[in-house]
Write a structure and sequence with these properties.
Structural class: mainly alpha
Distance between the termini: 30 Å
Low-confidence stretches: 132-137, 267-282
Number of strands: 0
Largest sheet: none
Number of domains: 1
Strand content: under 5%
Shape: globular
Oligomer: single chain
Mean pLDDT: 88
């Protein structure tokens, strides 16, 4: 299977990732606004800043799942997540694995990418013919740049998980028990593959393997708690799984060594060249 044959599924995978990760953001909004599911202690006042964040996450997550006003909704959610990370998490330290800001950090880059790339193949924007809104995919000149930033951000987060499992840093115990413990294998994958992902080298095979690792982690550790019950602790497994699966299909975007090593300059190493459909003829 060639990179070109894989990349043709980019619009569909973009929509799937948008829907799944939009659901996670919707879940955060539900917790803040309604204390649901099963977390009444997390309900906040609607008149507080946390309440405003809840409104943005609930409405934004719903719009993103539907693919309606996709670009503006993604931009607002991405900015809200960036502000949340800078204000609440960054003062605790730069490492996302220590400052509890990994979800906000991931959502910032993912939704700013969606703001540039659009909704993908499926969404109400496309159905309604909103070409100027968010119906297209990779229509923005900035989409490949934002895809590269998302790839680098994911590699930065994942490398920290690797150092935690493989080296015991920071504040963890190294696990080298490869004979019986899947965690040890996961740590080795994360430690050695994340730097390559940051460089955009072997992006597709590495992303495929890491997506599979996250799928195994979710179904083995968190899925038995049920879907809503699995999200509080399995949220990272979900968004990493679909984030890496999207990189497998789309490639590394700009600033990737895959592009330098590729013999062709037609975007086989990244998502360059995927154009917005002509909705006037749809």
């Amino acid at each position: 299977m060639t990179s070109k044959s894989i990349s043709k599924w980019t619009p569909q995978m973009l929509s799937i990732a948008r829907i799944v990760i939009g659901l996670l953001v919707l879940w955060h909004g539900m917790l803040k606004l309604f204390g649901y599911p099963a977390a009444p202690e997390q309900q906040v006042s609607l008149m507080s800043l946390a309440g405003l964040a809840g409104v943005i996450e609930f409405a934004g997550g719903l719009l993103l799942m539907l693919g309606l006003f996709t670009r503006p909704a993604a931009l607002v959610v991405g900015i809200e997540m960036a502000i949340s990370f800078v204000v609440l998490n960054l003062p605790k330290g730069v490492l996302t694995i220590e400052n509890d800001g990994e979800p906000a950090f991931f959502y910032t880059f993912f939704f700013l990418f969606i703001a540039a790339a659009g909704a993908g193949a499926w969404g109400l924007d496309r159905f309604l013919g909103r070409k100027g809104g968010s119906a297209g995919y990779f229509a923005s000149a900035h989409a490949n740049t934002m895809l590269a930033l998302m790839r680098i951000a994911m590699a930065f987060m994942f490398f920290q998980h690797g150092t935690e499992k493989f080296l015991g840093w920071p504040n963890a115990t190294a696990d080298w028990n490869f004979s019986t413990n899947l965690r040890a294998w996961g740590g080795m994958m994360e430690f050695f593959m994340a730097p390559l992902l940051a460089l955009g080298l072997f992006t597709r095979p590495i992303s495929f393997l890491l997506s599979g690792e996250m799928a195994v982690a979710y179904f083995v550790r968190w899925a038995p708690s049920g879907f809503w019950g699995s999200i509080p602790r399995g949220e990272a497994s979900i968004y990493f799984c679909f984030g890496f699966l999207f990189l497998f299909v789309a490639g590394g975007g700009a600033w990737a060594l895959d592009n330098v090593l590729s013999r062709k300059r037609d975007g086989t190493g990244s998502s360059v060249g995927v154009k917005e459909p002509d909705l006037t003829r749809a």
